[in-house]
Design a protein that fits this description.
mainly alpha; 10 helices; globular; homodimer; Four Helix Bundle (Hemerythrin (Met), subunit A); about 230 residues; DNA-binding
Chain lengths: ~230, ~230
DNA sequence: GTTAACAAAATTGTCAACAATAAATTCATC
DNA sequence: GATGAATTTATTGTTGACAATTTTGTTAAC
């Protein structure tokens, strides 16, 4: 009984659609849900133990964030981003995240710094232990945490969406073992935070994002045969 | 029979939730819907001629963008942004829109420039004619069009959301007559576009956003007494 | 053996009735 | 006459059944 208050006597404490969305976000980030995966309503109902309506609302929210694609009368599928969309996502990240860095450096207290330090330690540990899922999730969370420190909920939501979509992009175009982030660059960022160097932090972030994008630019198409039509029709 | 294809023979061509969302966005931007306004489901059903389910989905999408606030068992209300949220919105705009400017300048064709020129002419005309709604809508659309020229759908969505929320912020904290934008600054921007000066365009945008924010910072609380509880409860 | 039409199954989309919660009105009491 | 409790009304939240569409599987014809 660590995670959720399961059905252990009293009410199962039905998950809200926001929580379901969050859970699917996580699954996508950890690449347990890959591009093209079908999300059937009944399966999700069983998985989360909620009614169909709740699921449909969650899927609508995910679709409005381009994490899920809703095909009329055919169901919901995890999005399969195109190269064009990948470009757009990285452009957006380069526009937003350096600025988040600047704000975060301004507003980071000693407590925040210590928190980031712990986070990085966990990241390294997961990496060393070969716990790929945990490593991926933590490296994604790092970017979101910067937005938290910047105290900007709008941007936090945006980063969450962009980080999740990046995971899909890597799933589509990255080599199978590709990590989402180089954790040493996160370490560099933390150093800039400690010294309160706004511009340096922003610059490191740009480089960091460039590296992630380069990783997927070079290696071509590693996606599985999900969209057979698109693959064989040209 | 100017506005909607009313039930005049064949199918009324039921609006999708995306279209309903768009219509409410527009109404908010034009300040026909003001902060705190109640959006009752039955009223919306009548207004758009669709079933309750469609409306509920549209409201959920609007709530996920912080345009609407869903109070449990009490209904949907147009959001009443706080000063804190206003700060976050402007921070986000300053982070994103200058970068959109840079990309848009890079990618603007002669056609795009001509299109912006026409748009600005319409803006000025609406201003001169005293057509406030049209003026507000067009000045908001201008910012979205830059994202269109930059060819980035993610950022376009973000700007659309942020522009709409800005209208709410002005409705809350701006003096009654306050315009959303100084259209002369839009003109300045267009000049930078013509000369393909990326950095200058970006800089003008920053100044432009600063001006809009300054307008709401100085003038304090002009909001109507919608949330009586909040006003008298402390 | 292959293709086309047809039938069956499964899944999604929609609607309408019902339950639950909050607001408004009425009534009784102080 | 004013305050507080109880009832009524209205609005939202949820569930279930039904309709529409797509997909799968089968059969028949070429």
């Amino acid at each position: 009984m660590s995670n959720v208050a399961e059905n252990s006597g009293t009410h199962p404490a039905a998950l809200s659609e926001a929580e379901i969305v969050e859970r699917i976000y996580d699954a996508v980030i950890e690449q347990r849900l890959r591009p093209g995966a079908k999300l059937s309503e009944s399966a999700l109902c069983d998985a989360f133990g909620v009614g169909r309506m709740r699921i449909r609302r969650a899927l609508l929210l995910l679709a409005s964030r381009d994490i899920v694609e809703l095909r009329s009368n055919r169901g919901a599928y995890i999005s399969t981003p195109s190269r064009e969309q990948a470009r757009e996502v990285f452009e957006a990240r380069r526009a937003i995240e350096p600025n988040i860095c600047r704000l975060a450096v301004q507003r980071a207290t000693a407590k925040h710094i210590a928190h980031l330090e712990t986070h990085l330690k966990d990241e390294r540990q997961a990496q060393d232990l070969g716990d790929r899922r945990q490593a991926i999730r933590l490296s994604g969370r790092f970017h979101v945490k910067l937005a938290e420190i910047a105290v900007n909920h709008v941007m936090e939501r945006m980063v969450k969406e962009l980080v999740t979509r990046t995971s899909l992009i890597i799933g589509m175009f990255g080599a199978p073992g590709t990590a989402n982030c180089h954790e040493d660059e996160h370490t560099l960022l933390l150093q800039a935070f400690k010294q309160k160097h706004e511009e340096e932090a922003a610059q490191i972030m740009v480089t960091h994002l460039d590296h992630i994008e380069a990783q997927i630019d070079l290696t071509s198409d590693y996606r599985e045969s999900v969209d057979l039509v698109e693959i064989f029709n040209n």
